[in-house]
Amino acid sequence: MTETTTDRRDGEALRGRIAAELARTRARTAALTDAVDDEDLMRQHSPLMSPLVWDLAHVGNQEELWLVRDVGGRAPVRHDIDDLYDAFKQPRRDRPALPLLPPTEARAYVATVRDKVFDLLDRVAFTDRPLVVDGFAFGMIVQHEQQHDETMLATHQLRAGAAVLDAPPPPEPRARGGGEVLVPAGEFTMGTDTDPWALDNERPAHRVRLPAYVIDAAPVTNGAYAAFIADGGYDESRWWSPAGWAHRQEAGLTAPMHWRRDGDGWAYRRFGRWAPVRADEPVVHVCFHEAEAYAAWAGKRLPTEAEWEKAARWDPATGRSRRYPWGDEDPTAAHANLGQRHLWPAPVGAYPAGASPLGVHQLIGDVWEWTSTSFRGHPGFTAFPYREYSEVFFGDDYRVLRGGSFGTDRSACRGTFRNWDYPIRRQIFSGFRCARDATPEEAHA
Ligand code: AVJ
Ligand code: FE
Questions:
Q1: Which residue range is the domain that position 13 belongs to?
Q2: Are both 211 and 322 inside the same structural domain?
Q3: Using CB atoms within 10 A as the burial measure, which of 224, 360, 391, 430 is most buried?
Q4: Which ligand 1 atom is the nearest neighbour of the CA of 393?
């Protein structure tokens, strides 16, 4: 096939976009790792997390494997360290004992890899080869680094000691955000075939039919969650599943992670600073079991993943599924609390410009939202480009979370994006909203 002028111009535009995304992402990685000293970078702040210096070199190693070696066909930079930074060969709890690259070497390594990537980006032809079509592998690597940046942010949240991260507080409410929204029965398109940087687990697009249901217009707030605690929610097994109650007992759960009593209220430790818990902010740092127990106490349930996605994407005017609740345009600061622009969730009603056509708010950003669905492939799923990104996690061990948090970058967040974790995990920026079946009267309204 001969290259036309249009192909060449499109290729140049794509190259420019990729270079900008790589640079923007690396600036975030640098900020997260330059914020603490070398000893702190090497230390394990929680058995659930890697030392920050492991995440840093792992990001470079994945970039080397996929872009330098595979896309670029270049010689390895550091073949000898592949095993150290293979997440499957090294469980998180063992990572601090490994002979990791010290901070200076890790920084030099990721910089060397990045130089080679910029060099090959100048020459790469965006052919039909699946790995490079529309710059997919570059997009995958940007998203991978951003996902580790969010993980590093969660590590910062677990760090003991003085605060090292700063950001302005999120915006104040500009609209009423509470209540519930009825989503009428019918089919919608779930997943995508067309989003060029969508990962394998978001594909393919397929039709899903749902009965009418009702979903909360906003995530569950601290105020509502504190009422559940005050009502003895953590002491009554009837609100919890058997597995949830066993975990609540064994782990001694009494409140969200990072909360402590403060007079007759609560305080919440955010990146090294204690602040009063604010009633109108979405609750964060709850596990799936806590979310499920709250929903039962409230007379509701968690949404299924399909219910979450229909609420986030379905446009009643056209019947189309959009990329985001507000339309197809990329998120801006007016749409959603993303990208570590703020260091905690925004109060309900802070993002009216980000609401869906039916009036569901804050689906994107603020907190990852637990759904009741186990992580599986969409019908017709094909692993690409490697089974270890998604497929090896399919099954009932993991629940799906949707929508991204204040710590999620826009490149790793959209109406189809899927996250997953164990139902006991809460060091991530996880919250939830509730749903329920529509009553017959509502369904026929
Ligand atoms: C999609 C967030 C569950 O961190 O385990 C990073 C992302 N995959 N490196 C994870 C990921 C490989 C993944 N999550
Ligand atoms: Fe990774």
A1: 5-158
A2: yes
A3: 430
A4: 3
